[in-house]
Sequence to fold (764 residues):
Amino acid sequence: FRGEPSTYTRFSLAQNMEGDNSQVEMKLSNSEMDDEVGNSMGGHREPRIMKPKRSPKNIFFLIVCTLLIFLIGFLIGYLSYRGRMPTKDQSCSNADSVPCGTAEELLSEDGSDTTLEAAQPGLEWKQLKELLKAKFLESDFECRIRACSVNREAGSEGDQNLALTVYNEFKRFGLHSFWNDEHYVKLQSLGSTPNRVTILGSETIEVPKGYLAYSASGQATGKLVYANYGREEDFKKLTSMNIGVNGSVVIVRGGKICFATKVANAQKVKAAAVLIYLDPADYDNMPEDTDVFGHVHLGTGDPYTPGFPSFNHTQFPPAQSSGLPSIPAQTITTNSARVLLSKMRGQSAPLEWKGTLSSTYNLGGDENVQVKVEVNNVVAEKMIHNVFGVIKGLIDPDHYVVIGAQRDSWGPGVAKSAVGTSLLLEMAKALSDLVVKDGYKPKRSIIFASWSAGDFGSVGATEWLEGYLSMLHLKALAYINLDAAVLGSQTFKASASPMLYTLLGNTLKEVSSPLDSSKTLYQKAGAENWEKQTIVPMTMDDTSYAFQAFSGIPSVSFKFTNDGDYPYFGTREDNLNNLITRTGNKVADIARAAANVAGQMVLRLTHDHQLSLDFDRYNGELYSSVFKINRFAKQLKKAGLTIKWLFSARGDFDRATETLKNDILNSDLNDAGICRAINERIMRVEYHFLSPYVSPKDTPFRHIFYGSGPHTLKSLLENLNLLNSNPSYLNMDDLRNQLALATWTIQGAANALSGDIWDIDNEF
Fold:
């Protein structure tokens, strides 16, 4: 700073003739005396370099300037980074203004930019949901339902024609891709020899037109015993009243539990056969001569290819599901049931067991009344088609939401499958229009699936899951079931994975009630208490059950309904007129509300950066189960067992969820790679609750919370209860094994959620 004012420095580049490199010539000149450079070598003068004078004051000034520049740069970098960070109060999963992004927008011309922030804004959430509502206002749901209510029993010509209609509609809507899967499955139907129910030595009571698929064929004769709904507690009640069921023909009424569970319970107590009828107390306004159809396979999928898909090229040895019954089972009309009940004697049934079919309900057991049940169903191999369409995501196309509906039906099946198929088609049309016409750019893919053979126990859906068992849990982030979504108008009910509770609750806040547009479904469901009023257990005859308990994919099904069960499933009374009556002539309005519920869940799962799957919810489920097990700590200690390690595993899962939440808070979710890595950890939580210690072939429903079998926490608790009620029936080795495997399944889920193996730090 103190150099002479007349001094300057001149730089020039000259080519080095002896090589390719350039050399720098630096000359210092004075304005008063400009030295000339001679042409000869002798005339060349060496440059004089002026060294600046260094003083403590100068050095201090340079240090201050350097620090100031560094501080300014640091602040600019920090503030720009902070602006992209999500906060606790504003996450990408609940902000109305989160923009969509495309894969093309994520990359600059040289392909270097991989942040979601680089994407130009598409449709904001508030704008997106309003567009979806508007599209459903244009849908003619009732017309679509009528078109789908054709004769379409699984594998029939009607089923194939409707499959072709769905395929052509997917094509017309402009979906990115559409295809079908063929499966060759074994289905049961009535044989050439009719089924028959006879009072021995007397008249034939009925030659039924309805039947129960997968019943054992053959004849069975025994005394008639009334067993209410055929639940486990009903058979225990009979035992306590000294009514023997062994070798008897059990008559039970429909309702409360599925037909397959009724028959399985009767088989456990060694009944010879089962008759099922519809009592007017449970099925009001049902014509008493109505034929009833159902299935009695305690499982899902083709029971003759358990655990593996029914493709035509597979050459597996003959096998059958452990859920197939070994006793005959048959439905009878209400009229036939009245005749049988009138002939029964013995003790009077408990008051809560009495319906409205007869003035007296006796338990039977009279050796003088012998009933013969003859079942002649035949098994035939049939080709079925599952039809698919897809809207491909633009950032993570290999991650997808699956929306599905059963297509087939025994009889009109309006509520059972026609409504679901109509919703599927209208949703495909609306979501496709959002992409093609309105510019919505989903981050993840949306798969639309039309299943066949659903009436036989989710056969089509389960065969697809079995065919892609090794990969679907890595790809499918959720399943939304549209079956039986409209059964009434009074209440809203749902069955779901705990991981979807928060998403469902937030969706109900956005959808208006079809009966009162001034209130949302959330308000109608009790607002803060909505879960208690809305969530019901998921049953095995729900297609969602196969996705969740078999494949470990978070699933949800829902329905608008009235008090009590829908009475017309499996009958020819499941028609549009009865559904119109049940809904108060609001079928279209309620179908539109159902479409909005499913549609907004799909949009949330494909719009937000972070997946709307609440992995923290399983902490509550684990705590509840471990708390129940802890009540037996003293008895277990006496037997030389401890639940210390089960508590440790639960604690590790709790810490793993906290770690993941912290990782999310400290991560830039606008970075595509980071966001994908976090989402993959979230979407696999459900899968890791499938027990790895049982075979999917022998025990297909491996989920320790929602599955069935000795590996489940429910089974563990049942055995622990024997410590108090009947310890002589308890096998301690089995109990020890259950406790150990349940502990390790939970520990495995905790380890998987923690992230990379070097991030896991426990002393288990």
Notes: The first strand starts at residue 7 and ends at 15.
